[in-house]
Amino acid sequence: MRYKKVRKQILRHQKRAITLSHQAEDSFEELVINRFGRLAPVRRLVSAWLIFWVLLALISSWQIINLSSYYQTIQPVPGGIYNEGILGTLNNVNPIYATNEVDTSLSKLIFASLFTYNNQNKLVGDLASGYSINKAGTTYTVNLKPHLTWQDGKPLTASDVVFTIKAIQNPQAQSPLYSSWQGISVSALNPLTVIFKLPNPLASFPYNLTVGILPKHILGSINAADLRAATFNTSDPIGSGPFLWHAIAVSGNTPENASESIALLPFNNYVLGKPKLAEFIVHAYANQNQLISAFNSNQLSAVAGLDYIPKQLAITPSVQIHSQLLTAGTYVFFKTSSGILSDVNLRKALVLAANPQAIINRLGYKTIPVNEPLLIGQLAYNPKYAQQTNNLALAKQLLTSDGWIMSHNGYRYKNHQKLSFNLVTTDTPENRLVVGILKSQWHALGAYLKPVFESVSTYTTTLQDHNYNSTLDGISIGVDPDVFVYWDKSQFRPKSTGLNLSEYDSVGASLSLEAGRTRLNPALRVIKYQPFLADWQKDAPALGLYQPRTIYITRETVYGMNYSVINSSKDRFNNVQNWEILTANVTDKRP
């Protein structure tokens, strides 16, 4: 019985499943199959929408591409390796010793100073935030910026500043800056404050504070007499400037073809901001032909240290020539203490017969005439005291009245002595041009000029010994009109650091120079300098010519490298932390 009941239930479920299957087929046929005919309009509608969205995407893409120039521009971006070639050799990058082009450039890149110059050649803070002066003008209080560090991570404090200045002041250290810091005491009031006490007011003193600061924790244990020869100066120096020493490679087997490559990396904690260049490599070449060849073969981004612009570089389209005037003056210095040029009337006649403007017209670059011991536009400059030049007739008259008689050979004689003297200078194309023009101008007066062109090393010795009748040279004047070291009677001592190349000895001029530099009031300084300018014009210890330039050649645009007049060639790095050489499409941030 139970078996029959189970079988009836199974048959009943089978019938129900068959019935449901038939119902599903009927429903599918009615709801789907029979409606296929209506899908055509739906397909057309869906296709239309799809085409619309595809077209919209294409049009939008076209608009984005064509309007990208509106909101995207090519702009400089961080990164890139900068390769600069410099003529010269590495000797000593320590800022209290650096003198040649290579050393001063590396020193500027590696070491920071209390103050530096901005793009307008104005003094601004580097490590220092500012300074104050007491009423007497003899005490300067300099405040350091907080959280300063050396490139090895050690803190930089006022004790490092004190150590640096005392090292300069120590005669055993033999720093070229020694004479500029004598009589000045320096002390640390606290880690962020340095006190400088001067024996007398000195208006130009703040400009002394641009020397690079040294790390006491590295050099403090070295004897002053050994400091100049310390390995720190040429191997892994530690500074606080924009770039830190990374590596050096030396090549060449003779001094004539030697070259050095010094790789520098950006210092992340540089006080004025991390440099934007990824690496800065200085290539020092002893041979000028090597330097130019390296630039022509695209190994270098820039070239410094040349005295002229090579023709092959001047005609290259991508090359940019940066000819920057220096706050300096090119003069012919007459040796006034002895020899034929001790005659003041002869010196005045030579000045009258010269035509500096004719020289400037032949230089091939724009510059500014120099006709006083101060630069045109500088504080205390007065056109009233400008030298009188380009008056050959008056010059001849002055010489004749002074006893210099013209001979049939075209030269003048006095007491059977020929009007003849030498002019010593370095052997550069520009100097040869200038001397050649002067020789012609003075020949018209009846004077015989004997040019002597020397190598840089030989000329350095010549200047030190004052072994010349006259010399053509440039002197750095700077922003401040304090030219005491060039014209004061105390500043000429053969075989010393004295820079009075004319050996000019005027009591009145020296008193005026001393009075002008010790007054802080600009209006009073102008008054105090007037006797010096008057005496200089009357005594003619030199012939002013023009402001010299420094040449910097780059392959492409260096963004951020913008300045007007600079004080020395190393000042091209005053804002090197902002230099950029790479470009990319950058989206503008428009409101």
Characterization of the model:
The protein is of the alpha+beta class. It folds into three domains: 2-72, no CATH class; 81-324 and 551-586, D-Maltodextrin-Binding Protein, domain 2; 327-547, Dipeptide-binding Protein, Domain 3 (Dipeptide-binding Protein, domain 3, Roll). The protein is 32% helix and 21% strand. It is built from 16 helices and 23 strands. The chain has helices spanning 2-31, 39-71, 101-110, 158-169, 216-219, 224-227, 288-296, 311-314, 344-353, 356-362, 392-401, 429-443, 456-465, 484-487, 507-517, 522-539; strands at residues 72-77, 81-87, 115-117, 123-125, 128-133, 139-144, 185-190, 193-197, 243-251, 259-266, 279-285, 302-304, 320-325, 328-334, 405-406, 412-414, 417-418, 420-426, 448-454, 470-476, 542-546, 549-554, 582-587. The protein has a seven-stranded mixed beta sheet, with helices on both faces. Strands 19-18-20-14-21 form a five-stranded mixed beta sheet. A hairpin with a 5-residue loop joins strand 3 (115-117) and strand 4 (123-125). Helix 9 (344-353) packs antiparallel against helix 11 (392-401) and helix 15 (507-517) packs antiparallel against helix 16 (522-539). It is globular, with a radius of gyration of 38 Å. The protein starts with a helix and ends with a strand.
**Which architecture name of the largest domain does CATH use?**
3-Layer(aba) Sandwich
Mean pLDDT score: 89
CATH class of the largest domain: Alpha Beta
**Total beta strand runs:** 23
Helix content: 25-40%
Distance between the termini: 92 Å
Q: What is CATH's topology name of the largest domain?
A: D-Maltodextrin-Binding Protein, domain 2
CATH superfamily membership of the largest domain, which one?
Answer: Periplasmic binding protein-like II
